């Protein structure tokens, strides 16, 4: 069922009010910076930022979606999927429903939609592996790496310059945080090296929990080709 124009008007006004209260975070050097600012980026640079991903004004943020790609179905659930859909508005769920036509998305692949009420222009939705054993299988490690490369392939296809990744498959999907961090950074770095002429010039690893913040800070600061921190 489509939402009425009146509903969308009231919803959009409320979401924009909430966004103004939270504040928009931008990359330094972008035109019109009037909120919090992340450091500027050189060509093909990586950094980490801890905070609410729905505040980031980048070309695309990455959503850790379920296979239906319709958003979380648990009201007020504290997952990244719910946070992004709630901030973007009902238009995002409607766009996903139209895009998916009732099908399931394979693990490791990605789709793209507009960002609607988010400061990000687009949302790239990717389905990460769900770990049920004490440790992930080798196949699941490969699938997680594929999430990052699939998202970057889409970003390049759409000519996007900046992408912010959440910590895919950690949390509700129970992928170990340290291994997920290692796979994320190595996958992105390898993709950047193999795509020197890509439109993607800045990748932000968005963290929310302190454990991920520390892992990415340490991993990025120990690698000379990439930049650390905020």
Secondary-structure blueprint of this entry?
Layout: H1 5-22, E1 25-27, E2 36-38, E3 45-50, E4 56-57, E5 60-65, H2 80-88, H3 90-100, E6 110-114, E7 122-127, H4 138-157, E8 162-165, H5 177-194, E9 202-207, H6 210-221
Parallel strand pairs: 1-2, 1-4, 3-9, 5-7, 5-8, 8-9
Antiparallel strand pairs: 6-7
Q: Which radius of gyration do the C-alpha atoms yield?
A: 17 Å
Note poorly predicted spans: 29-35, 224-230
Order of helices and strands: HEEEEEHHEEHEHEH
Principal-axis shape equals: globular
What's the short story on this structure?
This protein is 38% helix and 18% strand.
Structure, explained:
The chain is α/β, with parallel strands linked by helices and about 230 residues long. It has a single domain, classed as Leucine Aminopeptidase, subunit E, domain 1 (3-Layer(aba) Sandwich), CATH 3.40.220. The protein has six helices and nine strands. A six-stranded mixed beta sheet has the order 3-9-8-5-7-6, with helices on both faces. Strands 2-1-4 form a three-stranded parallel beta sheet, with no helix packed on it. β6 and β7 form a beta hairpin. The longest helix is centred in the middle third of the chain and has 20 residues. The radius of gyration is 17 Å and the shape is globular. The relative contact order is 0.18.
